[in-house]
Structure to design on (662 residues):
């Protein structure tokens, strides 16, 4: 019977296996810290395999800093931690699909890798801006100690001589730890995005350059969709001789996982249907000319007319509008056409009509053009066939005209009135709901999509998700992650009873949900306004703990119980869900069968029983339900023959069930 791993996924081992599948000749062998052999990568050979030229030396175009390699290692390193459910802090625990997780976001992202791999449609984060000051919300100073930096970067030789002059102006130590902090987290975040997923990252001018380079490397420069420029404050008009410049802008970097898959939602407005209600009638054959490599038929005044029809005929006329040039704006062609444009009017005064032949992709269509009267700007209106799939939309009046997404927004007024949003007087790092809902709109979310924020702060994103769900009937899900930063005793919120930033975030969700329900009681009946709370903690296993591949038969006999005494069945259940890669938001039930507590998760995705001495009759009952997975405690069985018997029961009754023990 297999043992549960009870630790986060070893990303390094998985990556080595993937590389080995592509380049088996690049796999070599080394030994671990215990002297046991393990697979490794021959990186020099791998670099050569990926290059068409002979590689000599180590020069390359790259963005790097002291600690970058360590950040990559840290992101891939497995951890022995878990997420413990906290029903007391939760709202609607049994029915909600939203999550609020307390703990270091790097560890949390590692633990969620399998459960939410490729499942998050949108991520928004507002990370620390590396201001150099310890902020209220985050430890916002990632400044590397001078001695530590000089040792890492190799500033001195073996004799203590300085190898180069330190750049005191740009001071790279200031950026290194911040870059490492962001790099490892964004590496993990990318894997959690769906193929059409998108991430929005707020930042200011201090680290936007470094962050852009990091994101270009992790997500790919081609997946950098845009950078929004956001005005967050008004300029101070009062005299201030201490500063030469006053920043009023922040930025939102926008990256997608795959720019071929992600389609943003653009602002739109209904088409002006009146423009589809005109028809053109040629009263003569016109004069056909060859101009600028185009065959043009010219109808002079009196040789054509335009008729306006009732809007009830919309869709019968397969015409739509688009701007474009008729011919080159200089040379003989332009001069020739000009004489037909000057002071020439059609029967409705719209000008000369041109029928340009062979303009369709199949070479069979044509477009009409009505020209202006200025000979120095020969332009007009093209009329082309409406795509057939849009005709019914136009008839129903539901066809929309889309506008490009601009990259500047003035939210200075919203930032100025942000303090009390969500029912809690809190302002540090807070982002306005209006701005966040605009990002949710741009992400082009669909019903039941998941939105994540792993620098959750006061949970503004959760508030915005509930609002956006209600207004667009989307029933979105959110995952908030926040480190439980302690509040200062001098803070007003501390005196109100809040002790950590997580206390603020959870109460913010409760209060904003209450406000939403009060304002629109008839429309919130199906809105998910609850959340399950989980808290990061050490592994459920005792300190005498080994990885699954480290167990031996002799060691098993020495271990009476490998589960910590303070851990509940619920702790063990959700620990198993993380390892098996199941979402933490699905429904589950517990029941008593012959004195044993049996937990059923999502109608049979997993059935667990952690009692001692489970009788065969209970094992058979569980097996008859044919769950996809079944898990028990190692101590649930008296000896090895008893465990073998469990395996045989499932093999006989439910052979497709994966059975493990912890």
């Amino acid at each position: 019977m297999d043992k549960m791993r009870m630790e986060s996924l070893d990303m390094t081992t998985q990556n080595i296996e993937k590389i080995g599948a592509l380049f088996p000749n690049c796999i070599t062998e080394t030994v671990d810290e215990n002297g046991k052999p393990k697979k490794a990568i021959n990186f020099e050979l791998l670099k050569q395999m990926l290059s068409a030229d002979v590689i000599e030396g180590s020069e390359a175009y790259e963005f790097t800093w002291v600690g970058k390699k360590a950040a990559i290692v840290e992101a891939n390193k497995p951890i022995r931690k878990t997420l413990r459910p906290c029903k007391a802090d939760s709202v609607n625990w049994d029915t909600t699909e939203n999550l609020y997780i307390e703990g270091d976001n790097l560890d949390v992202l590692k633990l969620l890798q399998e459960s939410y791999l490729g499942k998050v449609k949108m991520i928004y984060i507002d990370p620390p801006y590396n201001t150099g000051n310890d902020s209220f919300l985050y430890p916002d100073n990632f400044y590397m100690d001078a001695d530590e930096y000089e040792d890492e970067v190799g500033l001195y030789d073996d004799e203590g001589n300085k190898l180069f002059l330190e750049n005191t102006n740009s001071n790279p130590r200031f950026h290194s730890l911040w870059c490492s902090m962001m790099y490892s987290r964004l590496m993990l975040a990318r894997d959690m995005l769906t193929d059409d997923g998108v991430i929005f990252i707020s930042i200011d001018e201090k680290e936007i350059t470094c962050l852009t380079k990091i994101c270009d490397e992790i997500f790919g420069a081609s997946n950098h969709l845009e950078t929004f420029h956001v005005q967050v404050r008004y300029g101070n008009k009062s005299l201030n001789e201490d500063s030469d410049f006053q920043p009023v802008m922040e930025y939102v970097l926008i990256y997608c996982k795959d720019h071929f898959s992600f389609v943003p939602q653009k602002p739109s407005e209904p088409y002006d249907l009146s423009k589809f209600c005109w028809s053109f009638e040629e009263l003569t054959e016109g004069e056909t000319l060859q101009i600028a490599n185009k065959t043009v038929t010219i109808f002079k005044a009196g040789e054509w007319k335009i008729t306006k029809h009732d809007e009830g005929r919309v869709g019968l006329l397969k015409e739509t509008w688009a701007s474009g040039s008729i011919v080159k704006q200089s040379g003989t062609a332009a001069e020739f056409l000009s004489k037909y444009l000057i002071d020439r009017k059609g029967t409705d005064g719209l000008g000369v009509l041109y029928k340009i032949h062979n303009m369709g992709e199949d070479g069979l269509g044509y477009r009409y053009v009505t020209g202006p009267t200025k000979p120095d700007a020969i332009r007009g209106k093209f009329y082309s066939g409406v795509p057939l799939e849009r005709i019914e939309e136009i008839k129903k009046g539901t066809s929309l005209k889309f506008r490009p997404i601009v990259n500047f927004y003035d939210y200075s007024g919203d930032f100025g009135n942000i303090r009390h949003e969500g029912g809690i007087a809190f302002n540090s790092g807070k982002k306005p709901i209006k701005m966040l809902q605009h990002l949710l709109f741009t992400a082009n979310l669909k019903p039941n999509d998941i939105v994540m924020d792993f620098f959750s702060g006061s949970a503004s994103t959760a508030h915005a998700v509930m609002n956006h769900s209600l207004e667009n009937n989307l029933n979105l899900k959110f995952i908030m992650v926040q480190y439980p930063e302690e509040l200062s005793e001098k803070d007003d919120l501390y005196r109100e009873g809040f002790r950590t930033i997580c206390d603020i975030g959870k109460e913010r969700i409760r209060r904003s949900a209450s406000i939403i329900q009060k304002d629109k009681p008839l429309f919130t009946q199906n809105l998910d306004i609850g959340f399950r709370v989980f808290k990061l903690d050490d592994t459920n296993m005792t300190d005498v703990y080994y990885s699954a591949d480290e167990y031996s038969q002799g060691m098993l006999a020495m271990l009476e119980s490998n589960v910590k005494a303070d851990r509940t069945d619920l702790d063990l259940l959700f620990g198993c869900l993380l390892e098996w890669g199941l979402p933490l938001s699905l429904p589950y039930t517990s029941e008593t069968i012959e004195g044993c507590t049996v937990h059923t998760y999502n109608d049979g995705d997993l059935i667990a029983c952690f009692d001692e001495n489970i009788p065969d009759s209970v094992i058979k009952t569980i097996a008859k339900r044919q769950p996809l997975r079944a898990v028990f405690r190692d101590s649930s069985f008296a000896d090895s023959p008893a465990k073998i018997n469990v395996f045989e029961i499932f093999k006989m009754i439910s052979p497709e069930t994966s059975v493990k023990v912890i």
Summary: The chain has 18 helices and 28 strands.
